[in-house]
Structure formats: structure tokens, C-alpha cells
Amino acid sequence: AETLAHTFARRRPSPWITGLLAVGMVAWGWLPLSGRFYLRMELPTRAGFGVTPSFFPHGLPTFLEDIGFRGNVLNSNTLGGFLTFHRHPESFPLTDGRWEIYDPGLVQGLLAATRTEGMWRGVAREFDVQGILLAHTSPEARAMLPDLARDENWRLAYLDRAASFWLPAAASKAAAVDPGGVLGTPPGRYEDAVLLAVFFEATGDSDLRVAALRQALPFAWRTTWILEQIGPLLIELQRYAEAEETYHRLVELEPANAGALNELAFLSYVRGDLDRALGYIEEAVRLRPEDQEFRENLRRVTAARSPSGGDPRP
Length: 314
What we know:
Elements: H1 2-7, H2 15-34, H3 36-40, H4 60-67, E1 71-75, H5 80-87, E2 91-93, H6 104-114, H7 120-126, E3 129-135, H8 139-149, E4 154-159, E5 163-168, H9 190-203, H10 206-214, H11 223-236, H12 240-253, H13 258-271, H14 274-287, H15 292-305
Parallel strand pairs: 1-2, 1-3
Antiparallel strand pairs: 3-5, 4-5
């Protein structure tokens, strides 16, 4: 609008041109207002106006104020503006998305360092970083969280369903938090549960990841996808009864889900119910006859039912 005002400062356009320009401005403004802009950036989905409120760590500014935090922050780029808005000048984000004001070489170096596992420590030293702020679904989080979770020099000081904030272990500004504590408050939105599950996946906590994913089920959206995430985790944790219940629910929703039938065959085998295991795996093979894994599992179950017995599926 400001650019157009300067362009036509000396000569006002005709009413129909003004109308076309106004329509164009509204159409362009609708992109972020509708939420489509954020979907294109792969931020969490939502319906309605604007970006989902689940994407931002709304409690973080008060937390940082309470502990008296001051200093530079290595952050997910998408949260730089949020941190600047709430904490300037007490805290400075490393980046905030305005790449045009940075040296191109510096930009490439920062992107490589914060999005490649293990490289971020050099950036933290170079820029005297006093805190790390990571949005759960950001590329920075995917690269850095596995490192941070096992690094004795850093500890988790703040966690919500959108982001985590880490302090040097030697800092006395805040006590380490229990990651499972955030599960005590039910999620207000579907993505609240899924985002937190992404954090637990990155930090390698399968138990808490299962708990977070289960909190997404009451929203009844993408239920089969959630169940497909939970099932393998329960098997990994050897919580076989819960896994079997999960796959039964999945087959109720998708009777032709061959993968779920294959897992039910395995779980029935573990329980020693070979007849039921055979029924499940035969149906899985019928649905996907080209799957060599299913055929091999059918051979194992059939062999186990024979008088000489057989080996379970690996």
C-alpha cells in the first residue's frame, strides 16, 4: 500500500484501476490471513485465520523474565521474530528470517551448522550463546535435539507443546524440568499433541512419545496415522498387549490394512496363539501377495504349527 501510494502520488489513477489494485492487495493479503502461507512453510496445519497458536511457546517470555535470563540465543529461525518481539533488548536471537540483511556466506554457514548434527556447538561458542530455543518441528530441532538430549553440558529448562529452551548445565537460573510434566495438561488442539510427540521422538523417549500421540486420538483426525505411529513403538517397548489392542483398533478402521494384520500375526505368535496368527498372516498375504516379508512370516507361522515347530519372526 505504501509503495502504491508513492507510485501514484503525483497522478491519481482512475477509479477502475484503483479498484483493481485494491482487489489485488486484498488477494495478496489473504495468503497469510487464510493460513495457507504457513502451510506452504510446513508449519502446523489449522483451519481459519492465521498461523496456529500451537506453533509458539507462549509461556516462554514469562519464564525467561522470571529467571532473569539475559543473553544471546541460538534459535530455530522461525522463532526469531517471536523472541525479538517479547524479549528485546534482554535477549538476542541468532537469526529471525530476515536473510537479506545477513552476509550470504554467514547465512550458509549458520544454516549448515544448525541443521547438521554436531556442528552447532561451534556456533554456540562463536556467538557466546547463553540459551537454545528450538521449535519441535524445525530443521534446527531435528539436527540438534538428539545431541542436546545426551549432552551433559546442556539441560532442558523449559518445555511446552511448541518448543524447548535449553540452558548450560552450569547455569543456576532454572532447575531442569521433567519432560513428562507437560503431558499433565490435556492438549487444546490436535497439533499440540503431535508437536510434542515430535520432540520426544528427537530426544529418544519412546514412552513419552506414545503418551503424547495418544493425546491426539480424542480429536478423531488422522486417527489411522496416529495408530500406525503408536503400534511399532509399543512393540519396541515390548508392551505387547497394548500393541495388540492398537492394531485391532486399526484393523477395525481399515479392514484391508495388511501391515496391521501382519503385526497382529506376530503379536498372536508371541502369545502362543498360532491358529489366530495363521489367520492374520494369511489375510495379509491375500491382500499383498507380492510382499516377501509377509510370505516369509507365513512360512514361519506354518512351520511353528507343525509337529516339529519353527522359529518366530525376527
